[in-house]
């Protein structure tokens, strides 16, 4: 579908796979852009949105990518061995065996080029993994996000609060948040959820 952003002071005509054209408020279009924006090459809308935003707004407000499966890709492609991958390099087109898409969609140069100010890492575990194994794999995903922040401290910093997101963004780094995708990942335990 194409969404026309004619009411904005610039023209944005995005392609999205969600169906026929719809009318969105300027705020909805901005939020959609913030959720979509990031290093993935499928986002001509977000590129236009980013370039259409006044420079002052881009410096003041972090562009947040609302979902990124890099932690699971690091599981499938590298068995979480971060010494085998260098996200500080542009990895466009670098083939990674065992990945469904064949290559990583995220690296620091593309995140920076996309104007990313905050990243919501998905700590995903397939539904086929259940019980204690799901909790175990979720903790591995959380661990790899923290290790990414440790390996790339000039680029990533864990940001557990909104205030932290603004502080980290203000320091020129990408604020890192995370969230589990499935309820099975807590194994029906509120204690696990509270951890």
Adjacency order of strands in the biggest sheet: 1-2-4-3
Number of strands: 4
Question: Would you give the CATH topology of the domain at 62-194?
Answer: TIM Barrel
Strand proportion, as a percent range, falls in: 5-15%
| Rg measurement, Å | 18 Å
Helices, by number, come to 8
Shape: globular
- Return the structural class: alpha/beta
Secondary-structure element sequence?
Answer: HHHEHHEHEHEH
Largest sheet: 4 strands, parallel
The portion of residues assigned to helices is 25-40%
**Cα end-to-end separation:** 41 Å
Supply the CATH superfamily name of the domain at 62-194: Metal-dependent hydrolases
Structure summary:
The protein is of the alpha/beta class and 195 residues long.
Protein traits:
single chain; 8 helices; 195 residues; 4-stranded parallel sheet; alpha/beta; TIM Barrel; disordered N terminus
